Amino acid sequence: MKKVLSLAIAAALVAPAAVMADATLFGKAHFIIENVDDGDQDVWGVDSIHSRVGVKGSEDLGGGLKALYHFEFKVHNDDGADGLGDRNQFIGLSGGFGTALLGTHDTPMKMSQGKFDEFGDLPNGDLANVIPGDDRLENVIAYVSPAMGGLTFVGALVPGERGDLDLDGIADHISLAGLYSNGPLFASLAYNSYDLGSAVDAEPSLLRATAVWNGGMWQAGVMFASMDLDLDGVDDPDYLGLSGHVKVGGAGKIKAQYLMGDSTNGGVTALVPGFSPNVNVGMPVADPENEVTQFSVGYEHAMSKRTVAHVGFTSYEEDETDVESDAFFAGLIHNF
C-alpha cells in the first residue's frame, strides 16, 4: 500500500511538470528587530516587513502573443493575522502592442518612483509615510506600452464599484505615468485623479515627478509632488523628497533619505471611500499647514546575491501637532 501511495504521489508531482515549465515560485522573507520611541512609549518588537510568496508565469500563444499570470501574497507571519494578504495579483496579455492587465496591481504613480525609496516597506522610513500616491488597488484595468527609446507609458483605470456613492463608472480613479530609463538616468512624471463620488464635493488630483541618477558607486534621487485638493479655502499641499546611497567595501551600502510635506496625522489621511483597498489621497483633514518631516539613515550589507543584513534609524516629526518618534531597526532579508 505504501509503495502504491508513493507511486501515486510521484506521478502527481511529475505529470504537471511540462505544463508548469514556465511557472516560477518566488518570495521574500524580511524580519526586523525594531525599537520605537514616541515620547510616551518606548517599545521593542520583532516585525515581519511585507514578507511574501508568489507564483508567476506565461504561456506562448503564438504570433508574438503571450498570456501572463502573477499571484503574489503577503505572508502574515508576525502580526497575528491568519492566512495570506493580497499583493499584486493579475492576468494579462503581452505582445508587440505592449501589455494589458486585469486584477490587483500597483498604480502607475507607485511604479513611477523607480528605485527612489531607500527605505521602502519599512513601517518607519517608507516614502508613503509622508508623500501620497503609493497605492496598490483592486479592480485595476492597466496598460503598459512597449519601451520606445527608453520611454514607457503606463496607464490604469479603476472602477469604484460603489453605486450608492455615485462611484459607478469605469474610471472613478485614473493613474497615468511616463517612465524614462536610459543608462544612469531614471525619470518619471505621474498623475492621479480621484472621483470622490457623493461622499465629498471635490475631485482632487496629484502630480508627482521623480528623477534618480545611478553613478555606479553612488545614487541620488529627488521627488516632488503637488496635490490639488479642489477645496475652497484650503491650501494645496506640496511634498519634497531626497534620497541617496554610497557603496562601500564592495558589499556595503550607506544610505539616507529626507522627506517633507504639508500634511496631518502621519502624512496620508482622508481615505477615499468606494475603493478596496481605499486610495490614499493625502487630503489634510485638520491643519494643511502641519509640516511633516522624516529623516532616515541606514547601512546594508549584501551577504550573498539573495541575502542582505541591514540596520537603520528614522526620525519623524510633525511641527503643528507635536507628534514625533525615533525608530531604530536591524534586520535580515532573503529573496528566493
**Classification by helices and strands:** mainly beta
CATH architecture: Beta Barrel
Count of individual domains:
1
Beta strands, count: 17
H/I helix tally: 2
- Span between N and C termini? 36 Å
CATH topology title: Porin
Rg estimate, integer Å:
22 Å
Helix content: under 10%
Low-confidence stretches: 1-20, 264-286
How do the strands line up in the largest sheet? 1-3-4-5-6-7-8-9-10-11-12-13-14-15-16-17
The major sheet is characterized as: 16 strands, antiparallel, barrel
Structure description:
- By secondary structure, this protein is mostly beta strands.
- The protein has helices at 2-14, 108-111; strands spanning 24-37, 42-48, 52-62, 65-75, 84-95, 98-106, 136-144, 151-158, 173-182, 185-194, 205-214, 218-228, 238-248, 252-262, 291-302, 307-318, 324-335.
- A hairpin with a 2-residue loop joins strand 3 and strand 4 (65-75).
- Mean pLDDT is 86; it is low at 1-20 and 264-286.
- The chain has one domain (25-335): Porin (Beta Barrel), CATH 2.40.160.10.
- The radius of gyration is 22 Å and the shape is globular.
- The protein is built from two helices and 17 strands.
Keyword list:
16-stranded antiparallel barrel, disordered N terminus, mainly beta, porin, 336 residues, 2 helices, Porin, Gram-neg_bact_OMP, 54% strand, single chain, transport, transmembrane
Chain-wise SSE layout:
Blueprint: H1 2-14, E1 24-37, E2 42-48, E3 52-62, E4 65-75, E5 84-95, E6 98-106, H2 108-111, E7 136-144, E8 151-158, E9 173-182, E10 185-194, E11 205-214, E12 218-228, E13 238-248, E14 252-262, E15 291-302, E16 307-318, E17 324-335
Antiparallel strand pairs: 1-2, 1-3, 1-17, 3-4, 4-5, 5-6, 6-7, 7-8, 8-9, 9-10, 10-11, 11-12, 12-13, 13-14, 14-15, 15-16, 16-17
